[in-house]
Amino acid sequence: QLQASGGGLVQTGGSLRLSCVASGSILSFTTIAWYRMAPGKERELVALAGSGGSITIADSVKGRFTISRDNAENTVYLQMNSLKPEDTAVYYCNGWTSRGEFGSWGQGTLVTVSS
Predict the structure, then answer these.
(1) φ, ψ for residue 53 (rounded to 5)?
(2) What is the 3 state secondary structure string of the chain?
(3) Which of 27, 79, 81, 89 is exposed most, by the fewest CB atoms within 10 A?
(4) For residue 88, which of 14, 21, 3, 22 has the smallest C-alpha distance?
(5) What is the mean pLDDT of each run of 10 residues along the chain (115 residues)?
């Protein structure tokens, strides 16, 4: 299972770095993604780090958010810069194992951006 952490309250224009840690080895996940769910909205994909180093970033955060994977630290990071109030959401990480199984959802971490 993957667990997200690092959320908090930040002002508009600020930065946060979220961490996604695997309970076992992160190497068991070929693809790991960050998602977010804002109040009253559906969960949406924010960023994805696929096998072979491929990266996908949602248009809404492109140029502001980056995803990186550190296998040695057993962690995937989401660096969020130039935060906006519309980035306020609970952020989750999840992914697909080498057997094609999608992980279970963890509690997520709340990011609140004040105007």
Answers:
(1) 90, 5
(2) CEEEECCEEEECCCCEEEEEEECCCHHHEEEEEEEEECCCCCCEEEEEECHHHCEEECCCCCCCEEEEEEHHHCEEEEEECCCCHHHCEEEEEEEEECCCCECCCCCCEEEEEEC
(3) 27
(4) 14
(5) 96 98 88 96 96 90 96 94 98 93 92 97
CA-to-CA distance for 4 and 21, rounded, in angstroms?
A: 7
Distance CA 87, CA 106 (A): 19
User: Largest alpha-carbon pair distance within the chain?
Assistant: 43
